[in-house]
Every structure is written in C-alpha cells, then in structure tokens.
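Table S2 (text version). Query chain:
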Amino acid sequence: MFMIMTAQEIRRAYLEFLSDKQHKIIPRAQLVPKDDPTTLFTGSGMQPLLPYLLGQDHPNGSRLVDSQTCLRAQDIEEVGDNRHTTFFEMLGNWSLGDYFKQEQINWLWQFLTEVIGLDPKRIYVSCYSGSETEGIDKDKESAEIWSSIFSAAGIEAKQVEIGSCENGSKIGEQGGRIFFYEDKNWWSRSGSAKTMPDGEPGGPDTELFYLFPSVKHTSDYGEKCHVNCDCGRYIELGNCVFMEYLKQSRGFVKLPRRNVDYGGGLERIAAAAIDDPDVYSISLMRPIIDVIERLSNKSYATHTTAMRVITDHARAATFLAVDGVVPSNKEQGYVMRRLIRRAIRFAFELGIEQNFIEEVTNSVISIYKEDYPEVAEKHDQIIETLIKEEKIFRQTLRKGLKQIDRLGRSGTLSGQDIFTLYDTFGFPLELSVEEAFSRGLELHDDWRDEFNQSMAEQRERSHTASKGAFKGGLGGSGLIHKKYHTATHLLYKALRETLGDGVIQHGSNITEERLRFDFSYPKKLSPEQIKKIEDIVNMQISNDLKVSWAEYTTDKAINELGALGAFGDRYGDSVKVYSMTEEGANKPYSLEVCGGPHVDRTSELAEGGKRFKIIKEESSSSGIRRIRAVLV
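Corresponding structure-token output:
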C-alpha cells in the first residue's frame, strides 16, 4: 500500500530517484531565457539545455536532472478547464550521449509505479509510426520495451495504428495499450519530420498517458476517444524524446551522439497520484483556492473557472516577479501585466475588493519557499510589485467596465470603441474582447482593422508632437561618452550591492550631459540609499579599476561567468564582455555584456576633480525606477 504523495514530495522523490542513477541535479533556469532570442519565456525543461542536446558538452556531465519552472503564455485562454495552466513545472532528465531507450523507459515506469504508486493498469503509451517518405523507421524498439514492461505487470499490450489525431477520433482506442501516431510522436524544434530544415536535429518520442475513468468522453471532442483526445479522459504525464536524427539535403542521417530528453508535468503527475483529474486539487494549488474561497465567501464547486484562473495566474505572476520581471506594456512585462489583471478581473467577479493580491501571493510564496529559496528571499519585492499593479488596475477596471456597459448599449462594440477603452481608460485589448463576449455583445466584423487604424493614427500624432522635442541620443564614441558608459557599469553593480540582486537593468541612455539608467525596483529610493550608491561608485572610481574586454560564447558569458546583461537584450552566439578589476584582485568588480565604448581605467572618470553624482531618481513605469547621473 502506497502513501499518497504531495506534489512537493513527488518533486523531491524524482530528483533523488535520478540522482541515485548518477544524474547531476541542476538548478532551474529563470522564466526569462538568457540565451534564446526566439521566445519570451522558458516554456519547457528542454529549452535551457538545447545547446547541450545539439552537441555541446555540459559542465555537469552526461546525465542531468531538474525540475524546471515553465510559462506558456499561449495557453492563457485555455486556463479554466481541469488541466491547462500557463505556469507549470516540468520534471526532466537527460542523457547526453549516454543511456538510451531501454534505461529511460524502464526508469520512467519504475518511478511512476513503484515510487509514486500509480496504477499500472491505467497507463497507456504512444510511439512513432515512422515516415516512409522521409525514410524514418517505425519505432518498434520503444514499443517492444513497453510490451515487455506491460507483460511483466500482467497487462495485455495490444498495439494499434492510429496515424493522425483526426483518425484517432474516428477509430478510437480499439482495446489498445500501445498506440502509433505520426507527427504527434516526432519531436523537433520546427515541427514534423516533413517540415524540418537542413541541419535540424530531431527524433521519435514515446508519450505516457494516465486514464481517468471518471471523465466521460463527449462528442464535442470527436466521435471516439483515444489517448490524444482533448476530452481529459487521458492525461499525458510525460514524453521521452529520443533525439537520434539529423536532417540533411539528401535526407535523414543518424546523429553521432544520441540523446534522451524526458519531460513530465509535475502538476499532472501529482493529480494522478491523488486520483483526481483536476490538477487544481493538488498540494501546489488547492491551498491558493482555499484562500480565494475565504476571501470571496464562495465555493470552488460553484465558481470553478474564476478560481482556477486566479490560482494559475497568481503562480505565474509570482515567479515572474521572482525572476525580475515587472508589469509593463512590452514583452515579458506585458504578459505579466495581463496575467495580474485577468486575475484581478476574476477576483472582482467573485466580489473580492480588498487584500486580494497580498493574501493570494503570500499563499503562493508559502507553497514554494522551501523548495525554491529565492521565492522567500524576494518576498517583499514580489508583494510590492504585484500590489502596485493591483492598485493601478482596480481603478482602471471599474471605469472600464462602466464604459463597456455604456458603449455596448446597442449590443455591439466597434474597433473604435475598443480603442477608446484602451486609449482613454487604459483597458487592455484582450480584456475588452473577453468582457464583450461575457456580456453577449457582438464585435463588428472589421473591429480589429478599426482598432489598428486608430492605433496607427495615434502613433502618428504622437510622433509629430514629439519631433524635435528631445536632444541627445544613444551616445557616441567621444571621451565623455566612454566615461558615462563606464560609469553606467559601476552604477549597475552599486545598485545591486545596495538594493539586492533582484535589480535588473531595463535600459540606459548616454548623452554628453548625463547618463540615464532604468532598473527594476518596486519603490522610491531613500536619500540614504542614493548616497550609498554614489559612495560605492566613487570608491570604485578611486580604486583605479582596469577596464578590459574579451569575447565569449553567450552561454559561457552569462551562465558560467555570470556576466550581467540588460533585460530583454537579444544576443547572438558570442558576446563582448567588459570587466573592471582592481589591481591584484582575484575576480572583477564588474562583469557585464556590452558593446562599449569605455575608458581604460576608472580613475579617468575623476579627471579634473570630478565625482559621480545622482541628480534625479524617479519612476519610469510600474515597478521601474530611473536614475539620471552626472560627473561633476
């Protein structure tokens, strides 16, 4: 008889299980990728390890394991059912040219059935059916390994050819245990084997599903149910990718080093462990729902969707704040703002008017602080960032909802109406559309074109109005520019020494008159903090640090050397890294990715008796502070 494990216990057991099999436990990567300009967020456990899957040697060896926090903003509209979340954890293990299918499949079965105690009779799997046109064989090897495992457990393992998911909804399970799919069981960054470009690696995968008999299939999801059906009767618990092929102009060839990439959703595995298809019932989420029930005096059973959305979005926003993101109107900050505001919107629907963000976020922090110490360390910063956004949006929300009711009296909304809500009342585009649908309002057929046209006209007006209003720019290569570039590096380091490592650069601007530096911090700096920052910078100027640079691969610069970079910057394969080092020191005082230009020694900033002076500290946007400083 197995003891039912919490999600936290499953996470620890998984890391221990693979550690006992000579896997090195590696820390999670941040939700904002440091070396992948193609995506806003870390969306899988594989993503931060892609360079090593493509051939680079990992400093921790050929066997790795972790639990990676992930965010998939594209799933935001799906949140509300029993299994979709934007934020989730992916349990992952990797073999970089080491073990392969036999070990991976058997270990996965062993962990799920012997460590966690899942019912073997409710486990079903899928394998790759092969591609005749691409010359890739059917993955009979994985299927035979599964057959042996099921046979040893006394389970009949009939193999069924499915092909496509569309065909699966027509033919159903047919009493099968092992199912063969085409594109669904092939992995590459660019999709199916047919669409892969030359030079792209990929391979077949085998996926594991858990059956929840209590969930009934309906025709809304197709005529018949199969393991890849969206009805929720089967939930995927993990995916083993066997990366062994390379696409070339003449077709596919075998990679010299075969890799294994396993990813399993912690939340889904935890739901299976408690035999509940609702992932929101697990120990990582139910305590948050308990807080929402108390604050709203309403039950989860009657307000399920709203409480699921709030719970998911609160977790996502909390970890974004942990990783230095602040609400804004661009990129990661925009997604964070949308998550917070959607959560507040649903809280408003539940009648929660006060103490919402603080209480819900404290619940999230309490859940994760033991396994992720950085969550506890940044408690105050997280709370302040999210509360500030809540205060801003609650006023916007009341005004916006009133305006939607007024503008929608005719039963329709135009693109111009939605632009007015956005431009005049600060109401986000997506929220206006959601509210229109929830109120049964129709949108004009060309509403998006109308909205875009209004936006274009507004940008043109703003551009005309600001033309010639500002002098200066991004800088030049003269001596004063070099001095201010160098001072900016010293300022960044001094800010982190004074305010903590949660400070992240969000932009800078150099002119001949001053430097400007934007950074993440939730509140106004005190006079004492400003003086301390000035003193640190001036001390490092007087220490006559030597300024030098070297070029490194981006991965080594950021992940191994720990060089700082500006938030949101996009880097190529290699970067220039500037270091500022005191004579005789073992390591540099400042190490930062930058294109330059800089002076040769920091003492040059003090020529003519000048000192570094902060002349203004102010808010730039929500959660972002701005410093202007000079050498005088």
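Notes on Table S2: Confidence is low (pLDDT under 50) at residues 465-477. The chain has three domains: 7-275, 286-449, 479-631.
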